[in-house]
Amino acid sequence: YKNIIIMCGAGISTAAGIPDFRSPSAGLYFKLKKYDLPYPEAVFDGDYFRQNPLPFYSLCRELYPEVLTPTTTHKFFTLLRDKHLLRRVYTQNIDALEILGGLNKKEVIEAHGSFQRSYCTSQKCGKEYDLQWLKKEMFTPEKNDGVPKCEDCQSVVRPDIVLFGEQLPSRFHSSISSDFSACDLLIVLGTSLAVSPFNTLVGRTKPGVPRVYINKTKPGKVEGIVGWMLALSANVDFSRDEDLFLQGFCDDIVADICSAAGMSEELENIQVQSMK
Length: 276
Prior knowledge:
β8, α8 and β9 form a beta-alpha-beta unit. Helix content is 29%, strand content 16%. It is an alpha/beta fold. The protein has 10 helices and 9 strands. The two termini are 36 Å apart. A 6-stranded parallel sheet has the order 3-2-1-7-8-9, with helices on both faces.
């Protein structure tokens, strides 16, 4: 295999302390109740954010880990790159852990954007900021009334992520055809494949291309409050002869794969960045 494509979601980042919003253990529903939202999913809605960004940033402060450190699975992606086996990582995650794990921006397509970048929402300004600046501003609410403000014009700053009702990045759409026509192995990790259009990518591989699905639950099954709020469901077919479903925690299964391939030491030696 020389053109492996990775598709991944929130399940690969839970070991890094980032809650999976689909999981009841995150207690998301109870955290949202105190924000007096017109409807629970408004906290992730683009139109509502433009009216009132405070609930979004308040929730971010509650859920954001003190230290961001890539997981074993993120190391695995970089190991594949180092062995010249990786074509692209398509991620639903907005935590930037793929980049902190050693990949470069060209190797990752962030379908839902990333906290790694943020920008002033004023069309006249548009000043850009990095993750370190945004995190510092998020966690000093006493100086900005709980909402990060632009240093130049004092307009609201928002992370460069895709909120509900917003368009996915153009690079996501423009890369699909060339990437998936070249793909000779698809590995899907930590995603329920219940969110469109991301979940449609699994059907873009050529006939006969192996597809490996690694997750705690079967594809298309969504648990927890976000799935309930949005009535998410999907019919994702992983029943081809060349398909393989490995059920369990991503880090454990990835470690087992590397062990079987004699790559455990190389995986362990992958250098990653942590961000406080």
